[in-house]
Amino acid sequence: MKFLDQAKIFVKSGDGGAGACSFRREKYIEFGGPDGGDGGRGGDVILECVANLNTLIDYRYQQHFKAQIGHHGQGRNKTGGKGNDVVLKVPVGTQVLDEDKETVLADLTEAGQRLVLLRGGDGGFGNAHFKSSTNQAPRRFDEGWPGEERWIWLRLKLIADAGLVGLPNAGKSTFLAAVTRARPKIADYPFTTLHPNLGVVTLGDEEFVVADIPGLIEGAHEGAGIGDRFLGHIERCRVLLHLIDGTEEDVAETYRVVRHELAAYGGGLDAKPEVVALNKCDSLTPEDIEAKLAALRDACGAPVLPLSGVSGIGLKPVLARLFEHIKEAREAEPSVPAASSAFGAGKRPTPGFAAAATAAEDDDAEDGRYGPDGEWIWNDEEEEEGDE
Ligand SMILES: Nc1nc2c(ncn2[C@@H]2O[C@H](COP(=O)(O)OP(=O)(O)OP(=O)(O)O)[C@@H](O)[C@H]2O)c(=O)[nH]1
Ligand SMILES: [Mg+2]
Fold first, then answer.
1. Fewer beta carbons within 10 Å, N or C terminal of the chain?
2. pTM of the model
3. Which atom of ligand 1 is nearest to the CA of 283?
4. For residue 144, what are the CA distances in angstroms to 121, 181, 196, 300?
5. In terms of domains, do 237 and 305 share one?
6. What are the tens digits of pLDDT across the range 231-258?
7. Looking at the 3D structure of the chain, how many domains does it have?
Protein backbone atom coordinates (compact mmCIF):
# COMPACT_ATOMS: atom_id res chain seq x y z
CA MET A 1 0.00 0.00 0.00
CA LYS A 2 1.25 3.46 -0.83
CA PHE A 3 2.23 5.62 2.08
CA LEU A 4 0.82 9.11 2.49
CA ASP A 5 0.89 10.98 5.76
CA GLN A 6 -0.72 14.32 4.93
CA ALA A 7 -3.86 15.18 3.06
CA LYS A 8 -5.97 18.28 2.70
CA ILE A 9 -9.66 17.61 2.33
CA PHE A 10 -12.90 19.55 2.14
CA VAL A 11 -15.75 18.44 4.36
CA LYS A 12 -19.30 19.63 4.47
CA SER A 13 -22.15 18.46 6.64
CA GLY A 14 -25.62 18.29 5.17
CA ASP A 15 -28.05 21.21 5.27
CA GLY A 16 -31.27 20.60 7.12
CA GLY A 17 -34.37 19.84 5.07
CA ALA A 18 -37.04 22.52 4.74
CA GLY A 19 -40.31 22.33 6.63
CA ALA A 20 -43.51 21.99 4.61
CA CYS A 21 -46.49 24.30 4.31
CA SER A 22 -49.61 22.24 3.92
CA PHE A 23 -53.21 22.12 5.11
CA ARG A 24 -55.40 19.14 5.59
CA ARG A 25 -58.19 19.27 3.07
CA GLU A 26 -60.52 16.37 2.64
CA LYS A 27 -63.98 16.19 1.32
CA TYR A 28 -66.68 16.28 4.03
CA ILE A 29 -64.11 16.75 6.75
CA GLU A 30 -64.18 20.07 8.49
CA PHE A 31 -61.47 21.73 10.57
CA GLY A 32 -58.56 20.54 8.44
CA GLY A 33 -55.81 22.74 9.85
CA PRO A 34 -52.12 23.01 9.10
CA ASP A 35 -50.23 19.73 8.73
CA GLY A 36 -46.84 20.59 7.18
CA GLY A 37 -44.12 18.41 8.74
CA ASP A 38 -40.63 19.50 9.81
CA GLY A 39 -37.55 18.95 7.67
CA GLY A 40 -34.98 16.28 8.62
CA ARG A 41 -31.52 16.95 9.96
CA GLY A 42 -28.59 17.00 7.53
CA GLY A 43 -25.97 14.27 7.72
CA ASP A 44 -22.90 14.70 9.92
CA VAL A 45 -19.26 14.42 8.95
CA ILE A 46 -17.75 11.78 11.19
CA LEU A 47 -14.14 10.69 11.54
CA GLU A 48 -13.56 7.13 12.59
CA CYS A 49 -10.25 5.76 13.73
CA VAL A 50 -9.63 2.23 12.43
CA ALA A 51 -6.91 -0.22 13.34
CA ASN A 52 -6.00 -1.91 10.08
CA LEU A 53 -4.94 1.14 8.14
CA ASN A 54 -1.61 2.94 8.20
CA THR A 55 -1.81 5.42 5.38
CA LEU A 56 -3.97 8.34 4.27
CA ILE A 57 -3.60 7.36 0.62
CA ASP A 58 -7.38 7.15 0.15
CA TYR A 59 -7.57 10.92 0.55
CA ARG A 60 -5.23 11.38 -2.37
CA TYR A 61 -7.94 10.26 -4.75
CA GLN A 62 -10.96 11.93 -3.23
CA GLN A 63 -10.72 15.23 -1.43
CA HIS A 64 -14.30 16.44 -1.19
CA PHE A 65 -16.73 14.83 1.21
CA LYS A 66 -20.27 16.06 1.59
CA ALA A 67 -22.91 14.59 3.81
CA GLN A 68 -26.42 14.27 2.46
CA ILE A 69 -28.92 17.05 3.08
CA GLY A 70 -31.94 16.35 5.30
CA HIS A 71 -35.17 15.33 3.56
CA HIS A 72 -37.87 17.95 3.37
CA GLY A 73 -40.97 17.76 5.49
CA GLN A 74 -44.26 16.86 3.80
CA GLY A 75 -47.97 17.27 4.27
CA ARG A 76 -49.90 15.00 6.65
CA ASN A 77 -47.35 15.89 9.31
CA LYS A 78 -44.63 13.85 7.68
CA THR A 79 -41.22 14.76 9.09
CA GLY A 80 -38.33 14.45 6.66
CA GLY A 81 -35.68 11.78 7.26
CA LYS A 82 -32.14 12.52 8.36
CA GLY A 83 -29.51 12.83 5.65
CA ASN A 84 -26.84 10.14 5.49
CA ASP A 85 -23.61 10.83 7.38
CA VAL A 86 -20.22 10.61 5.74
CA VAL A 87 -17.81 8.51 7.74
CA LEU A 88 -14.14 9.10 6.98
CA LYS A 89 -11.92 6.23 8.05
CA VAL A 90 -8.49 7.29 9.23
CA PRO A 91 -5.58 5.34 10.67
CA VAL A 92 -4.67 5.39 14.35
CA GLY A 93 -2.50 8.42 15.09
CA THR A 94 -4.24 10.83 12.73
CA GLN A 95 -4.39 14.45 13.75
CA VAL A 96 -7.04 16.76 12.38
CA LEU A 97 -5.62 20.21 11.74
CA ASP A 98 -7.33 23.40 10.72
CA GLU A 99 -6.70 24.88 7.30
CA ASP A 100 -3.73 26.82 8.71
CA LYS A 101 -2.06 23.43 9.29
CA GLU A 102 -1.19 24.42 12.86
CA THR A 103 -4.27 24.37 15.05
CA VAL A 104 -4.93 20.81 16.15
CA LEU A 105 -8.67 20.23 16.18
CA ALA A 106 -8.54 16.61 17.23
CA ASP A 107 -6.15 13.77 17.72
CA LEU A 108 -7.36 10.23 17.08
CA THR A 109 -5.11 7.86 18.94
CA GLU A 110 -7.21 4.79 19.61
CA ALA A 111 -8.92 2.41 17.24
CA GLY A 112 -12.68 2.73 17.43
CA GLN A 113 -12.66 6.40 18.36
CA ARG A 114 -15.35 8.39 16.54
CA LEU A 115 -15.53 12.10 16.27
CA VAL A 116 -18.39 14.18 14.92
CA LEU A 117 -16.34 16.76 13.09
CA LEU A 118 -19.20 18.74 11.58
CA ARG A 119 -22.78 18.45 12.61
CA GLY A 120 -25.53 18.50 10.01
CA GLY A 121 -27.91 21.46 10.01
CA ASP A 122 -31.24 21.06 11.77
CA GLY A 123 -34.36 20.76 9.68
CA GLY A 124 -36.72 23.73 9.38
CA PHE A 125 -40.14 23.66 11.00
CA GLY A 126 -43.23 22.96 8.96
CA ASN A 127 -46.30 25.17 9.30
CA ALA A 128 -47.95 22.73 11.71
CA HIS A 129 -45.34 23.83 14.21
CA PHE A 130 -46.50 27.43 14.13
CA LYS A 131 -50.17 26.94 14.83
CA SER A 132 -51.40 28.66 17.92
CA SER A 133 -54.70 29.85 19.33
CA THR A 134 -54.31 33.20 17.65
CA ASN A 135 -52.92 31.95 14.37
CA GLN A 136 -54.76 28.86 13.35
CA ALA A 137 -53.74 28.83 9.74
CA PRO A 138 -50.05 29.77 9.73
CA ARG A 139 -48.39 29.83 6.36
CA ARG A 140 -44.96 30.15 7.80
CA PHE A 141 -42.50 27.34 7.30
CA ASP A 142 -38.73 27.41 7.78
CA GLU A 143 -35.90 26.51 5.49
CA GLY A 144 -33.41 24.06 6.98
CA TRP A 145 -30.40 25.37 8.87
CA PRO A 146 -27.26 25.23 6.76
CA GLY A 147 -24.60 22.62 7.43
CA GLU A 148 -21.00 23.54 8.13
CA GLU A 149 -18.12 23.33 5.72
CA ARG A 150 -14.38 23.70 6.00
CA TRP A 151 -11.04 22.60 4.68
CA ILE A 152 -9.02 20.47 7.06
CA TRP A 153 -5.67 18.78 7.03
CA LEU A 154 -5.28 15.19 8.10
CA ARG A 155 -1.82 14.42 9.35
CA LEU A 156 -0.78 10.94 10.29
CA LYS A 157 1.75 10.55 13.05
CA LEU A 158 2.34 6.85 13.31
CA ILE A 159 2.10 5.39 16.75
CA ALA A 160 5.13 3.31 17.64
CA ASP A 161 6.82 2.59 20.95
CA ALA A 162 10.38 2.79 19.72
CA GLY A 163 11.78 4.87 16.88
CA LEU A 164 14.97 4.15 14.91
CA VAL A 165 17.19 7.09 14.10
CA GLY A 166 20.59 7.33 12.49
CA LEU A 167 22.41 8.39 9.37
CA PRO A 168 21.52 6.75 6.07
CA ASN A 169 23.05 3.27 5.78
CA ALA A 170 23.39 2.93 9.55
CA GLY A 171 21.46 -0.33 9.26
CA LYS A 172 18.08 0.82 10.59
CA SER A 173 16.02 -1.19 8.12
CA THR A 174 18.28 -4.21 8.60
CA PHE A 175 17.66 -3.98 12.34
CA LEU A 176 13.90 -3.73 11.82
CA ALA A 177 13.98 -6.77 9.55
CA ALA A 178 16.06 -8.70 12.09
CA VAL A 179 13.79 -8.11 15.08
CA THR A 180 10.35 -8.04 13.46
CA ARG A 181 8.51 -9.61 10.57
CA ALA A 182 8.58 -6.36 8.63
CA ARG A 183 10.48 -6.63 5.33
CA PRO A 184 11.66 -3.14 4.46
CA LYS A 185 13.90 -2.49 1.49
CA ILE A 186 17.58 -2.78 2.40
CA ALA A 187 20.48 -1.72 0.21
CA ASP A 188 23.94 -0.22 0.53
CA TYR A 189 23.08 3.19 -0.85
CA PRO A 190 21.82 6.12 1.21
CA PHE A 191 18.10 6.85 1.39
CA THR A 192 16.92 3.36 0.61
CA THR A 193 14.04 3.94 2.95
CA LEU A 194 11.74 6.67 1.62
CA HIS A 195 8.87 6.40 4.06
CA PRO A 196 8.40 5.02 7.56
CA ASN A 197 8.02 1.28 8.16
CA LEU A 198 6.54 -0.32 11.24
CA GLY A 199 7.25 -3.71 12.76
CA VAL A 200 6.10 -5.52 15.89
CA VAL A 201 8.72 -6.96 18.24
CA THR A 202 7.69 -9.90 20.39
CA LEU A 203 9.69 -10.18 23.56
CA GLY A 204 8.38 -13.08 25.65
CA ASP A 205 4.75 -12.20 26.38
CA GLU A 206 5.26 -8.57 25.60
CA GLU A 207 4.98 -6.75 22.31
CA PHE A 208 6.00 -3.35 21.11
CA VAL A 209 6.06 -1.49 17.83
CA VAL A 210 9.25 -0.22 16.21
CA ALA A 211 9.28 2.47 13.54
CA ASP A 212 12.04 2.75 10.95
CA ILE A 213 12.26 6.16 9.30
CA PRO A 214 14.40 7.55 6.48
CA GLY A 215 17.96 8.48 7.48
CA LEU A 216 18.96 11.92 8.72
CA ILE A 217 21.95 13.84 7.45
CA GLU A 218 23.59 17.06 8.49
CA GLY A 219 21.26 19.95 7.70
CA ALA A 220 18.15 17.76 7.58
CA HIS A 221 16.24 20.43 9.51
CA GLU A 222 16.93 22.78 6.62
CA GLY A 223 15.72 20.23 4.12
CA ALA A 224 18.94 18.38 3.26
CA GLY A 225 18.40 14.80 2.11
CA ILE A 226 14.80 13.82 2.76
CA GLY A 227 14.91 16.41 5.50
CA ASP A 228 13.17 16.04 8.82
CA ARG A 229 9.80 15.53 7.19
CA PHE A 230 9.35 12.09 8.70
CA LEU A 231 10.56 12.89 12.20
CA GLY A 232 6.92 13.58 13.11
CA HIS A 233 6.41 9.83 13.04
CA ILE A 234 8.70 9.29 15.98
CA GLU A 235 7.33 12.20 18.01
CA ARG A 236 5.03 9.81 19.82
CA CYS A 237 7.63 7.14 20.46
CA ARG A 238 8.50 6.40 24.04
CA VAL A 239 12.14 5.70 23.32
CA LEU A 240 14.55 6.23 20.43
CA LEU A 241 17.12 3.72 19.29
CA HIS A 242 20.05 5.58 17.85
CA LEU A 243 22.01 3.30 15.54
CA ILE A 244 25.55 4.18 14.62
CA ASP A 245 27.41 2.59 11.76
CA GLY A 246 30.53 1.06 13.33
CA THR A 247 32.42 1.16 10.06
CA GLU A 248 32.41 4.98 10.14
CA GLU A 249 35.73 6.60 11.06
CA ASP A 250 34.49 9.09 13.62
CA VAL A 251 31.52 7.55 15.42
CA ALA A 252 31.33 10.32 18.03
CA GLU A 253 30.90 12.93 15.30
CA THR A 254 28.22 10.80 13.63
CA TYR A 255 26.38 10.69 16.94
CA ARG A 256 26.55 14.45 17.31
CA VAL A 257 25.26 15.12 13.80
CA VAL A 258 22.09 13.13 14.40
CA ARG A 259 21.57 14.58 17.89
CA HIS A 260 21.91 18.05 16.46
CA GLU A 261 19.22 17.34 13.88
CA LEU A 262 16.88 15.93 16.53
CA ALA A 263 17.37 19.05 18.65
CA ALA A 264 16.85 21.36 15.66
CA TYR A 265 13.57 19.60 14.80
CA GLY A 266 12.18 20.27 18.29
CA GLY A 267 8.97 18.49 19.27
CA GLY A 268 10.70 17.12 22.37
CA LEU A 269 12.70 14.59 20.35
CA ASP A 270 15.99 15.39 22.01
CA ALA A 271 14.46 14.97 25.46
CA LYS A 272 13.22 11.44 24.77
CA PRO A 273 14.97 8.50 26.38
CA GLU A 274 17.61 7.23 24.00
CA VAL A 275 19.39 3.92 23.61
CA VAL A 276 22.64 4.20 21.67
CA ALA A 277 23.97 1.15 19.84
CA LEU A 278 27.05 0.58 17.72
CA ASN A 279 25.91 -1.36 14.64
CA LYS A 280 27.81 -3.56 12.17
CA CYS A 281 30.04 -5.03 14.89
CA ASP A 282 30.42 -8.18 12.76
CA SER A 283 32.78 -6.33 10.42
CA LEU A 284 34.90 -4.80 13.20
CA THR A 285 37.83 -6.26 15.13
CA PRO A 286 37.37 -6.59 18.91
CA GLU A 287 39.87 -3.75 19.47
CA ASP A 288 37.97 -1.50 17.09
CA ILE A 289 34.73 -2.28 18.88
CA GLU A 290 36.27 -1.39 22.24
CA ALA A 291 37.73 1.87 20.95
CA LYS A 292 34.51 2.96 19.22
CA LEU A 293 32.31 2.01 22.16
CA ALA A 294 34.55 4.12 24.40
CA ALA A 295 34.45 7.08 22.01
CA LEU A 296 30.67 6.91 21.79
CA ARG A 297 30.30 6.56 25.54
CA ASP A 298 32.22 9.78 25.96
CA ALA A 299 30.04 11.51 23.37
CA CYS A 300 26.69 10.48 24.79
CA GLY A 301 27.53 9.98 28.46
CA ALA A 302 25.60 6.71 28.70
CA PRO A 303 26.38 3.04 28.15
CA VAL A 304 26.52 2.00 24.48
CA LEU A 305 25.51 -1.45 23.26
CA PRO A 306 27.35 -3.34 20.52
CA LEU A 307 25.10 -4.82 17.85
CA SER A 308 24.97 -6.40 14.43
CA GLY A 309 21.74 -6.47 12.52
CA VAL A 310 23.09 -8.79 9.84
CA SER A 311 24.53 -11.52 12.07
CA GLY A 312 22.05 -11.01 14.92
CA ILE A 313 24.67 -10.30 17.61
CA GLY A 314 23.50 -8.23 20.57
CA LEU A 315 19.88 -7.85 19.47
CA LYS A 316 18.38 -9.22 22.70
CA PRO A 317 20.11 -6.76 25.10
CA VAL A 318 19.12 -3.84 22.89
CA LEU A 319 15.49 -4.96 22.77
CA ALA A 320 15.49 -5.51 26.53
CA ARG A 321 16.87 -2.04 27.13
CA LEU A 322 14.25 -0.53 24.81
CA PHE A 323 11.51 -2.42 26.56
CA GLU A 324 12.63 -1.16 29.99
CA HIS A 325 12.01 2.40 28.85
CA ILE A 326 8.74 1.50 27.14
CA LYS A 327 7.42 -0.28 30.20
CA GLU A 328 8.34 2.65 32.41
CA ALA A 329 6.59 5.10 30.08
CA ARG A 330 3.50 2.88 29.71
CA GLU A 331 3.12 2.68 33.48
CA ALA A 332 3.56 6.41 33.94
CA GLU A 333 1.16 7.34 31.16
CA PRO A 334 -2.54 7.72 31.94
CA SER A 335 -4.83 6.33 29.29
CA VAL A 336 -5.73 8.85 26.59
CA PRO A 337 -9.24 10.29 26.91
CA ALA A 338 -11.45 9.70 23.90
CA ALA A 339 -11.32 12.66 21.57
CA SER A 340 -14.93 12.13 20.63
CA SER A 341 -16.03 13.07 24.12
CA ALA A 342 -14.75 16.59 23.55
CA PHE A 343 -17.28 17.35 20.85
CA GLY A 344 -20.99 16.94 21.38
CA ALA A 345 -23.63 17.50 18.78
CA GLY A 346 -24.77 21.09 19.14
CA LYS A 347 -28.27 22.43 19.21
CA ARG A 348 -30.27 24.51 16.84
CA PRO A 349 -29.11 26.90 15.43
CA THR A 350 -26.09 24.94 14.27
CA PRO A 351 -23.08 26.24 16.17
CA GLY A 352 -19.68 26.47 14.55
CA PHE A 353 -17.10 23.78 15.18
CA ALA A 354 -15.40 25.59 18.04
CA ALA A 355 -18.71 26.52 19.55
CA ALA A 356 -19.78 22.89 19.45
CA ALA A 357 -16.78 21.98 21.54
CA THR A 358 -17.58 24.51 24.22
CA ALA A 359 -21.30 23.86 24.13
CA ALA A 360 -20.62 20.26 25.03
CA GLU A 361 -18.82 21.36 28.17
CA ASP A 362 -21.44 23.90 29.19
CA ASP A 363 -24.76 22.31 28.41
CA ASP A 364 -27.11 24.95 29.72
CA ALA A 365 -25.42 27.75 27.78
CA GLU A 366 -28.55 28.53 25.79
CA ASP A 367 -28.11 31.45 23.47
CA GLY A 368 -31.75 31.98 22.72
CA ARG A 369 -35.21 30.50 22.91
CA TYR A 370 -38.41 30.20 20.88
CA GLY A 371 -40.95 32.98 21.11
CA PRO A 372 -44.73 32.47 21.31
CA ASP A 373 -45.02 32.36 17.51
CA GLY A 374 -42.23 29.90 17.20
CA GLU A 375 -39.65 32.44 16.06
CA TRP A 376 -36.16 32.20 17.43
CA ILE A 377 -35.23 34.98 19.91
CA TRP A 378 -31.57 35.55 20.66
CA ASN A 379 -30.78 36.42 24.27
CA ASP A 380 -28.98 39.60 23.28
CA GLU A 381 -31.90 40.74 21.13
CA GLU A 382 -34.15 40.53 24.14
CA GLU A 383 -31.80 42.60 26.24
CA GLU A 384 -31.77 45.31 23.62
CA GLU A 385 -35.55 45.35 23.56
CA GLY A 386 -35.63 45.67 27.33
CA ASP A 387 -33.32 48.66 27.19
CA GLU A 388 -35.60 50.60 24.93
N1 LIG B 1 28.27 -5.78 7.97
C2 LIG B 1 27.09 -5.32 8.28
N3 LIG B 1 26.41 -4.66 7.35
C4 LIG B 1 25.18 -4.20 7.68
C5 LIG B 1 24.64 -4.39 8.99
N6 LIG B 1 23.43 -3.81 9.02
C7 LIG B 1 23.21 -3.28 7.79
N8 LIG B 1 24.26 -3.50 6.99
C9 LIG B 1 24.37 -3.07 5.60
O10 LIG B 1 24.31 -1.67 5.54
C11 LIG B 1 23.64 -1.28 4.34
C12 LIG B 1 22.53 -0.33 4.68
O13 LIG B 1 21.55 -1.00 5.43
P14 LIG B 1 20.07 -0.46 5.60
O15 LIG B 1 19.42 -1.33 6.62
O16 LIG B 1 19.42 -0.30 4.29
O17 LIG B 1 20.39 0.97 6.23
P18 LIG B 1 19.37 2.10 6.62
O19 LIG B 1 19.87 2.73 7.86
O20 LIG B 1 17.98 1.58 6.65
O21 LIG B 1 19.57 3.11 5.44
P22 LIG B 1 18.55 4.17 4.82
O23 LIG B 1 17.24 3.51 4.68
O24 LIG B 1 19.15 4.51 3.52
O25 LIG B 1 18.52 5.31 5.77
C26 LIG B 1 23.13 -2.55 3.67
O27 LIG B 1 24.01 -2.90 2.64
C28 LIG B 1 23.22 -3.58 4.78
O29 LIG B 1 23.48 -4.87 4.29
C30 LIG B 1 25.43 -5.11 9.95
O31 LIG B 1 25.05 -5.34 11.08
N32 LIG B 1 26.64 -5.54 9.52
MG1 LIG C 1 16.36 2.00 5.61
1. C
2. 0.76
3. 1
4. 7, 54, 46, 64
5. yes
6. 989 988 999 999 999 998 899 999 999 9
7. 2
